[in-house]
Amino acid sequence: MPSVRLKNGVRLHYEDYGDPTHPAVILIMGLGAQMTVWPDPFYYGLAQKGLRVIRFDNRDVGLSSHFDQCGNPNLLKIWLTKPFNKGALAPYTLDDMACDVVGLMKALKIKKAHIIGASMGGMIGQIIAGKHKKKVLSLTSIMSSSYNIPLSKQGLKVLFTLAKHQPKSVCKDAFIDYTVKLNQLIGSPNFPQNEQALYQQAKQNVERSLNPNGIKRQLAAIAASQNRKHLLAAIKVPTLVIHGEHDPVIPVKAGYQTAQAIKRSKLKSINGMGHDFPPELMTKLTKWIYKHVQKAQKRHLKKQMAKQNSANHLPFS
User: Where is the AB hydrolase-1 domain (predicted)?
Assistant: First the structure.
């Protein structure tokens, strides 16, 4: 798989699948998750429907640039001092990660794209749609939020449980077991995944890349970033919000709030879905998102044709 070095010095590892002349879709993954977490049936399914689909490793995860020189951030200090220093203590912010995506688009010569983000990736997608409007044709925000750490009591319980099991040293086997435990805790109660399948997925990802401090730096970026409620009001592109009704990490209430804050939005909540991508739901999600992208693409082409017709009928000066 190829990689590209952006003007800001960040190297992003990506996969670009589908006809390059087809509408482009950019997939942005969540906290600590590599691009391989996007399920293949979903990724290739969108391409088979006639889309050019790009997935990539965010900075500090997978095979993209790691910011080890920035060390291990103090999350509590960043959170408590954010009102005064605007997140300056964090190695980078979600805005910086949004600029990575815009840089990737430029490197791949993509002028406009349909943005799909999951969890933290949804937060990044919201920033792109709000601040880089000319680059975005549609937005899909999956199991995400318009504010930064929307923890419920259940979410706090999950975090405390995971903290107890977090490996004390960088040992691949320990992190594989930890990842399995994580996915079981945040997974969909109505669509539980086979433990062996979870183990194989965890093994594949840990062997591909292991960067525990990168996850902490990404979490610091979330903690340091500003509330996006007002930014979402500026989003004008068609937006689809998808959220699991049994999400233990980001409560479904956050999905409703995101949809309410974006004027041109549609919400689809899924009973029994947690904070993951259950294989049983991939056909449904692919269908929903393709329909959303196709409708937005037709809207864009219609506007282009109207502008062209208007230009052709301008009187001679």
Answer: 23-276
Report the first-to-last Cα separation within the chain, whole angstroms.
53
> Rounded to an integer, what distance in angstroms lies between the CA atom of residue 217 and that of residue 206?
18
Contact 22, 45 (CB under 8 A): no
Task: Tell me if residue 143 falls in helix, strand or coil.
Answer: coil
Cα angle for residues 284, 290, 295 (degrees, 5° grid): 130
Question: φ, ψ for residue 276 (rounded to 5)?
Answer: -155, -175
The partner residues of 114 in beta bridges, in order of sequence, read: 25, 138
Is residue 158 over pLDDT 80?
no
Q: What fold characterizes domain 3-312?
A: Rossmann fold (3.40.50)
Q: Tell me, what's the pLDDT at 195?
A: 95
Return the number of other C-beta atoms located less than 10 Å from residue 128's C-beta.
Answer: 25
Cα separation, 116 vs 142, in Å, equals 8
The model's pTM: 0.93
CA atoms within 13 A on the CB side of 44: 4
Q: Which two tokens stand for residue 68?
A: 């080890």
Specify the amino acid at residue 248.
P
pLDDT (tens digit, 9 = 90+) per residue, 216-275? 899 889 888 888 888 999 999 999 999 999 999 999 999 999 999 999 899 999 999 999
Nearest one of 306, 304, 301, 296 to 25, comparing CA atoms: 296
How are the residues of the chain apportioned to helix, strand and coil, as percentages rounded to the nearest 5? 50, 15, 35
pLDDT at 89 over 50: yes
What are the tokens at 244?
Answer: 């699991």
Tens of pLDDT, residue by residue over 116-151, are 999 999 999 999 999 999 999 999 999 999 875 555
